[in-house]
Design goal:
Shape: elongated
Strand content: 5-15%
Number of domains: 3
Radius of gyration: 29 Å
Strand order of the largest sheet: 2-1-3
Helix content: over 70%
Oligomer: single chain
Largest sheet: 3 strands, antiparallel
Distance between the termini: 76 Å
Number of helices: 14
Amino acid sequence: MPNFQYTGQLPQGTAVTGTIEAVDIDAARRQLDDLALHVSTLAQTETMRQRRSLSRDDLLFFNQQLAALAENKMALDVGLRAVAKDLERGPLKTTIQEVAAALESGVPLEEAIGKQKGRFPELYANVLRSGAESNQLGATLLSFNNHLTLLNASRNMIWEALTYPLLLLAMLFAIFSFFMLVIVPSYADSVFGLIRADGSSYTYDGGVLSDPTVLVLKLSEIWPTVLLVVGALAAAAFVLLMIFRKSFALQRLRERVLRSLPFIGSAYRDSLLARFTSSAALATRMGQPLPAILRLAGGATGNARLVADAGALAEHVEAGNPPDAFVARKSMIPALVAYTLQTAGARGHLAHALADLARNYETLARYRLGRFRVIFTPIILSLVALFIAVVILSLFAPLFSIVNQVSGF
């Protein structure tokens, strides 16, 4: 799909610019309207139409290779050519070859990266520029590598936490399906041969079956249909997720759902704050002014609310107000971050303080997710065990009745 460049303002007046992918310009405008963004300009971009951003893993690999070359004082163009030869065809190989070609023609590294519109995040060009100006490109890239590692870890921990209960539920659903499709019919054929269907009720020589027993038998009969419905819903959800995974509206819905989940919602917010403070620490090391630090850090999270809140705080600072005096309704930026910006910034230790905050938020997110696993697992296992116990007792109830009749009780 084509990409569209836009400029506009958020409801609180923050100026924003960026690109989105959409089927056509009308679809792009609808996506921006979903974000309550007042659009000033919107046009399809020729330079970015065929380019997609590098994946997080590809960006991390590229940065690692570039950092190693810079740290060992090797020629970047020659080294990147050698790296590209070992890669299979794909966007990463093409990008490295194009950057190497630009370097061979005498273009500075930050400009060579800048020509790769859409491939690299905006923050990356600033990192390279800062490293080149300080003559410490290798150390700067290694610092950015640590930043990328933290970002990947904070993103992955949420999806790993969600994957765990989903896999557990899928496994238990499979076990229960085996029970309903194999165990119950076999037991009914061998034991319930004493039972016959009489009109609308199941009966046996000793009387009518209890409601729980009938329910288990009927559930076993319709379970293949249940499997088809569940499979169709899962397939449809997967297809829709793949189709609309870049939709702004779907991203906002996904974020709203994540924030509403017990434990997961708090951990998700903490992981976003870890990304935000880590990006802010990196931008601080690059010598950026505080408003630029806030906007870059907000954009690095990819979260619409945090981007808006960071922009509002940046405007608050640009107006000459201290960060810790920022007050916004339901802002995602906590008072601790604003206080750190004020006090650590005044003392000249802002980068270090923000890096410590990033680690603290990451640790807090992992703690919340650990509690989620500890609480969720026994609850699910207990419910499934209780359900299976009720099913087994329902199946054995007629047999107990027959035995009692035969024994004279």
